[in-house]
Write a structure and sequence with these properties.
By secondary structure, this protein is an alpha+beta fold. The protein has six helices and six strands; from the N terminus they run H-H-H-E-E-E-H-E-E-E-H-H. Helix 4 crosses helix 5. The two termini are 34 Å apart.
Amino acid sequence: MGGIDLKYYDIPNQYGGQIPQDTGVRTAPLRGIGDIANKFVAEVFLDEVALMRSVDPMQFRLELLKNTPRGRKVLQRVAEMADWDRKRDNTALGCTFMVYNDTLIGGVAEVSVDHSTGQIKVHNFWCVVDCGIAVQPDNIVAQFEGGIVYGLGLALTEEISFRDGAVQQSNFYDYRVARMNDVPDIHVGVISTDNHPTGVGQMSVVVVAPAVNNAVARLTGVRLREPPMTPERVKKALG
């Protein structure tokens, strides 16, 4: 149930409720479990609020982070890396920000959408992290690169379905993880501060799906409501 706490945003009235539910399905290990779903909902909804107010999503988040200077620095850095304000042809950018176990992360995805097939293509992913003292910067970058690839699969292709109480997928031919030709150019920035070191093991997994979703919405005007954002779901949403 992690990830419902958004105290870093300057939103005066917040409530995060949790309703446990017995699904009858045994859970198993997953990187970023809990935060994957909850941060997705929070960051996608925040983008919707920004767009409904005709406010740039990046600027909207920066305003909400006025009391979190470390967060503002992370988001400003990732916006600079992605050249956020530059106009693009046939692609769009989506952003996200989150604090996960006291680690501050900003992400930006650049995507295109093939309307005939419903295929989402992620061309670039930029990510900036402030995890306090960067004890081993090269390892931090490597962890974040791997986490982004992992998150890409969860965002676009990885899904488990059940029939008569049994899992239908049995191997990687029907449970599709990200292949090499699916992986975008990945750009990771590390901001080292004198704060105590925090985690980097699975943090970048969580930023991918909301950033991709927000980019798709900016590009197409259509909001996808659940990951994985498969071609079938994209085509259905596009009508």
